[in-house]
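Homework help board

Subject: predicted structure for assignment chain

Our instructor gave us this sequence and asked us to write out the predicted structure in token form, then describe one feature. I got the tokens but I'm not sure how to describe them. Can anyone check?
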Amino acid sequence: MNSLAGRIRNLRPSCGPVRLVAVDGPAGAGKTTYAGKLAAALGCQVIHSDDFPVPWEEGPGRWFHALDEQVLRPLQQGLPGGFRRYDWVRGEYAEHVTVPVAPVLVIEGVGVARASAAHLPAFTVWLEAPEPVRLARVLERDGSELEPRWREWFAAERAWFAEDRTRDRADLIVQT
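My token output:
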């Protein structure tokens, strides 16, 4: 992880003065864990797509506008961003998260490296794992009662990624 961190630090800023790193891939692939380790090696903040509310039925495409408006656009202008984190357990917004202008910022989640924003990341990581492994991971994390919802979400992800061709733009592909 340290060699990747060094490589990223040597890249040119891509989102204003910030080197934006996108960690994308389907649910259960290990994005949150990987992004946390990478951010620790880089000494930077991580923003999770799960910090933004997304109704299941809207799929992976709909949440990004909040990240773009509240964080990425200000950073592009050299200004700090910020947002209110969504608390999924309580079902409401929680604390305000400040996103300072920093040398590096990691964003992770389904759809963070989307084609419409492909010009923003300095580096993109795609994580993947076999679907049965991913399903087992999300059910262990969230509970087996959500299996029907997760199967719908996986189908929505497949459609999203097939159309967006996210994996094709990755600088690094990681099997987990």
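Reply (TA_rk): Your tokens look well-formed. For the description, you could write something like this. The longest strand covers residues 92-99. That's the kind of observation they're looking for.
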